[in-house]
């Protein structure tokens, strides 16, 4: 295909691809300029938690922008940021937390890594600067976040520019049958190999997101990881950028195992897509220790603690509470899982249907018994994505789950306001798209 450059003076990540121009959105639907209607079955990359066109969020943002659109967080605080933090404090799995706001998932991951380092410095552990992470993981595109990510294709051009952190195996029951404790023991081995006095933190996605596609770990994994981190004084960073804010049927994915991280980050659904916003949550005692021992936290950003962003997040949070969207995610999530199993699990190329809450993945394989993936060059996930898109369903896709390069997974993560009939429509279109594309393999 030749590059058509259909977008005037704009360039996008995926270049050889013409995009429809969007007109507007409403609820779980988007409409393009030609009038075509799409079900936003993944809320973009798992962002649109309360749906499109919510006047409550828009009004809250307008009011805040009229009052004070921007203030520098070095000089001022603001009511939206303070109130959002008080309300979030009652929800996060960190007791007595403090919050720091930035503008994206990558940024809060960068911040969390630097915070972990500075907490260790404040504790008197100056040598601890290693962040242990996992292969087949994703934490963002900026060099620090990419350095702790396990996506070979994304990392390759920049290897010489990144700090290479140790990667350990993630839980992936479909391809690697092992107890959670056994997989967690790889973390312990890595800490001991590098020397416990050098490891600052372990970062991971509580339920694997963009790389593996909705992989839920065995129940004994996170408790075992927590124990190992405690044993060696390693901080636990939970990256809830994708799976937080009710996506998996609880406020936070870590809540499924009642495991408390030391640092937690989220972004995507936090302000429902109305504003680019993420937070880092940490224990007050650790933040206070930095203040006492180091003076300040050596990090920041022009748009940190943005008042309009925090107003958007606060209004999003209120909708989530009023409309009981976390409960909806749990209840309808089970239904979505069942619908996908019923529609797809018998298909000869569907290896696994997996997920939790309103976040589900369908892994495709050449052969169900051997679990051999399709070669990356086949671009199967992309083809299915495109077919579903043509039919008016937006899904999320990923390639590389099997070995970093090969392995196709299609993900669904609709707005949490979705109802059962809409789930049915979504599963119907996805099933058709999968059947049609694979009929031609
Ligand atoms: N962390 C996780 C778990 C993610 O899934 C992502 C994005 O997909 C990021 C971090 C990076 O977020 P952003 O794209 O907002 O920089």
Explain what this protein looks like in three dimensions.
- The protein is globular, with a radius of gyration of 21 Å.
- The chain has 13 helices and 14 strands.
- It starts with 21 loop residues before the first strand and ends with a helix.
- The protein has a seven-stranded mixed sheet, with helices on both faces. The protein has a four-stranded antiparallel sheet with strand order 11-12-14-13.
- It is an alpha/beta fold.
- Helices cover 37% and strands 15% of the residues.
- It has helices at residues 43-46, 55-68, 79-89, 105-122, 143-147, 152-155, 180-194, 221-232, 284-294, 307-322, 325-344, 380-390, 420-439, and strands spanning 22-26, 29-32, 37-39, 97-102, 130-134, 167-168, 199-204, 235-239, 263-266, 278-283, 350-356, 359-364, 396-399, 408-412.
- The longest helix is centred in the C-terminal third of the chain and has 20 residues, at 325-344.
- It has two domains: 22-53 and 324-438, Aspartate Aminotransferase, domain 1 (Alpha-Beta Complex), CATH 3.90.1150; 55-322, Type I PLP-dependent aspartate aminotransferase-like (Major domain) (Aspartate Aminotransferase, domain 2, 3-Layer(aba) Sandwich), CATH 3.40.640.10.
- The chain binds pyridoxal-5'-phosphate (PLP).
- Pyridoxal-5'-phosphate (PLP) binds at residues 45, 104-106, 109, 138-140, 205, 209-210, 239, 241-242, 267.
- Residues 45, 104-106, 109, 138-140, 205, 209-210, 239, 241-242, 267 line the site of pyridoxal-5'-phosphate.
């Amino acid at each position: 295909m030749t590059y058509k450059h259909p977008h005037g003076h704009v360039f996008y990540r995926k270049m050889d691809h013409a995009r429809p121009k969007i007109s507007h959105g409403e609820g779980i639907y988007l409409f393009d300029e030609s009038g075509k209607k799409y079900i936003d079955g993944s809320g973009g990359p798992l962002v649109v938690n309360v749906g499109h066109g919510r006047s409550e969020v828009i009004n809250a943002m307008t009011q805040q922008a009229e009052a004070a659109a921007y203030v520098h967080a070095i000089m001022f605080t603001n009511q939206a940021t303070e109130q959002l933090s008080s309300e979030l404090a009652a929800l996060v799995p960190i007791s007595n937390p403090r919050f720091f706001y930035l503008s994206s998932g990558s940024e809060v991951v960068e911040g969390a890594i630097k915070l972990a380092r500075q907490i260790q410095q404040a504790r008197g552990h100056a040598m601890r600067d290693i962040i242990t992470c996992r292969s087949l993981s994703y934490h963002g595109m900026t060099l620090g976040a990419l350095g702790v990510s396990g996506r070979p294709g994304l990392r390759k051009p920049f290897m010489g520019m990144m700090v290479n952190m140790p990667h350990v195996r993630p839980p992936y029951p479909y391809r690697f049958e092992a107890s959670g404790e056994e997989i967690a023991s790889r973390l312990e081995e890595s800490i001991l190999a590098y020397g416990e006095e050098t490891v600052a933190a372990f970062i991971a996605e509580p339920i694997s997101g963009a790389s593996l596609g909705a992989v839920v770990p065995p129940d004994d994994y996170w408790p075992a990881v927590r124990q190992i981190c405690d044993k060696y004084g390693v901080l636990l960073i939970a990256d809830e950028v994708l799976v937080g804010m009710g996506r998996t049927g609880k406020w936070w994915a870590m809540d499924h195992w009642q495991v408390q991280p030391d640092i937690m980050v989220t972004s995507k659904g936090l302000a429902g897509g109305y504003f680019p916003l993420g937070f880092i949550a940490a224990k007050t005692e650790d933040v206070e220790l930095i203040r006492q021992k180091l003076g300040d936290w050596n990090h920041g950003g022009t748009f940190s603690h943005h008042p309009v962003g925090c107003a958007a997040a606060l209004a999003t949070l209120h909708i989530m509470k009023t409309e009981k969207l976390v409960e909806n995610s749990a209840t309808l999530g089970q239904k979505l899982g069942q619908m996908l199993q019923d529609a797809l699990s018998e298909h000869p190329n569907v290896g696994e249907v997996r997920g939790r809450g309103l976040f589900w993945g369908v892994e495709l394989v050449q052969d169900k018994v051997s679990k051999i993936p399709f070669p990356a060059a086949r671009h199967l996930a992309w083809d299915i994505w495109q077919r579903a898109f043509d039919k008016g369903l937006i899904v999320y896709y990923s390639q590389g789950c099997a070995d970093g390069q090969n392995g196709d997974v299609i993900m669904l993560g609709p707005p949490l306001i979705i109802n059962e009939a809409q789930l049915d429509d979504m599963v119907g279109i996805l099933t058709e798209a999968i059947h049609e594309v694979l009929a031609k393999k």
